Amino acid sequence: MKGTSDFILNTSVMERRLFILLIFTGFIPLVLSVPHQYYLIQQRKIWSDAQAYCRATYTDLAIIDSNDNIVRLQNEAQKQQFSSSAWIGLYNPINSWRWSMGNEPLGTTWWCSGQPNNIVGHDECGAIGPWGWNDLDCTSPHSFVCFDVSKTGNQRYIYISTTMTWLDAQTYCRQHHTDLASSRNATEESVIQGLTSGWTWFGLFRDYWKWTDQTNFSTISWMSGKPDNALRNGNCGYINNSQAANAQCSDIMAFFCYAEITGRQQILKMKVRSKEDANDPAVMTAILEQIKEKLNNLLRTRNITVKWRKQPDGVVFNKLKGKNILP
Question: Can you say how many angstroms the Cα of residue 209 is from the centroid of all Cα atoms in its chain?
Answer without folding.
Answer: 10
